[in-house]
Write a structure and sequence with these properties.
Helix content: over 70%
Strand order of the largest sheet: 1-2
Strand content: under 5%
Radius of gyration: 20 Å
Order of helices and strands: HHHHEEHHHHHHHH
Distance between the termini: 58 Å
CATH class of the largest domain: Mainly Alpha
Structural class: mainly alpha
Length: 243
């Protein structure tokens, strides 16, 4: 460490630098996680720099350093005038890749049908199996949803909340399948639907429904948790045009 700089630095400067490093770490973990899980597919364009800066609270030059690291590692490719893309892997596509591709081609109506089949049952099981860490992460997702400043940011944390609930059922195959289903949120079709449908009133309603779901999970009330998440998903389906 440069001790002369350290002596002259204010506590505010140190805190700012620490927060910047933490934000960069969170952003790096998120991007790598979305790519490794298959949520962001090879050849798919990453969100615009403006959106990533807003989502993670980064300075633009900090984001570009992060993208430099990922490009050096071969995780992404960048094309001037076109944007940043997930790097194409070598070799044949794996069955899991094919499943994600099929899910992404599904209609929103099909996706909501599957969610209504899977999530209520998962939520009921999660009421018995969720750990303190699971519940704490759900609360974090709730807070981030409530302070999100854009539809994209809200969608990110909304999706993470639902993923965390399913993961709390402690069935890895189920969690993997649901992660693939949840990746549909990143498609253009889904994004446009949400942009049109997510009014301030509906967002407030979803947030209240989320709170009731997590409350039922905290109380270990599986029947109530199942009912709450089913009602929430029916509200989402209705807001998307009835599907």
């Amino acid at each position: 460490m440069d001790h002369e700089w350290f002596k002259g630095a204010s506590m505010t400067d140190l805190n700012t630098r620490t927060k910047a490093r933490q934000s960069m770490s969170v952003a790096l973990s998120y991007i790598e996680g979305e790519i490794s899980s298959g949520a962001w597919r090879p050849g798919e364009k990453l969100p615009a720099e403006r959106e990533l800066v807003e989502r993670f609270g980064l300075a633009r030059n900090t984001l570009r350093k992060l993208l430099d690291q990922l490009e050096t590692k071969g995780v992404i490719t960048r094309h001037v005038g076109r944007g940043t893309f997930v790097a194409e892997p070598s070799g044949e596509p794996q069955p899991s890749d094919q499943l994600v591709s099929k899910i992404r081609r599904a209609s929103p109506a099909e996706v909501m049908d599957i969610r209504l089949m899977l999530e209520p049952q998962s939520c009921e099981i999660a009421a018995a199996r969720a750990t303190a860490t699971d519940l704490a992460e759900m609360e974090r997702c709730l807070r981030e949803c409530e302070i999100a400043k854009s539809v994209a940011a809200f969608e990110t944390w909304d999706g993470r909340l639902h993923q965390r609930i399913v993961a709390a059922a402690r069935n890895q195959l189920l969690a993997d399948i649901y992660d693939a289903i949840n990746s549909v949120r990143l498609t253009t079709q889904w994004g446009k639907l949400k942009e049109r449908s997510l009014t301030a009133e509906r967002r407030a309603k979803y947030q209240e429904q989320h709170r009731r779901i997590v409350s039922a999970l905290r109380q270990r009330d599986g029947e109530q948790a199942r009912a709450e998440i089913r009602d929430h998903l029916l509200s989402v389906r209705e807001s998307l045009g009835g599907l």
